[in-house]
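To: structure desk
From: M.T.
Subject: fold request, one chain
Message: Could you run this one when you get a chance? Sequence is below, nothing fancy, just the single chain.
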Amino acid sequence: MSSRVLVGVKRVIDYAVKIRVKPDRTGVVTDGVKHSMNPFCEIAVEEAVRLKERKLVKEVIAVSCGPQQVQETIRTALAMGADRGIHVDVSGKDYENLGPLQVSKILAALAKKEDASLVVLGKQAIDDDNNQTGQMTAAMLDWAQGTFASEVVIEGDKIKVVREIDGGLETIQIKMPAVVTADLRLNTPRYATLPNIMKAKKKKIDYMKPSDLGVDLISRIEVVSVDEPPQREAGVKVESVEDLVSKLRDSGRI
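Reply: Done. Structure tokens follow.
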């Protein structure tokens, strides 16, 4: 049995919220806006908890980087079945500049500190859509990686991962320790029940700073500006294929 699974959980603006850009174009409005766990992180938590339920792993640790509010996200993971949480405190300007490189350094340091044999992450976050943290974490640790997983099967010290690729599905086998990133079809996350939400309040959340892990948060990326997408123009109805071709030709599209 592998020992521990580390699961990254990110607090993001809820997927149902309409995003508004700040007037100074430095980012998006977050104050007073509903936040929740990144949907791909929910899938990652569910997969880790299922591995524990099948007695393939002993402990599931949920990790989140950010200010005090990320503890709500960790509590959600604990209510879903994670055993304990780790809050890596990143706030102020450091939090604004926090990117995949800094997060992957933190996750890699924690994986070593906790003696984890598996790191499960969402394939990407719905706020920045980077799809980089899993790959960077695997590189930092020099571990095998199985990205875009739609099926994960542990057999001894090996993991069979069915990956979603442009042309369909690809099946690979990797050796543990490993990093796996969850795609949409991997599972359907469970709802946290009221008894489990109450139990989660008693579960332990460790608190630490990146400096405790020997990680610097210097960002190499500068956001120049954040802009709204251009307004979509109204469409035009055409009577026939000939009219469509004619309009496309007139507008220089063909």
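Reply (cont.): The CA atoms of residues 183 and 217 lie 28 Å apart. Let me know if you need anything else for the meeting.
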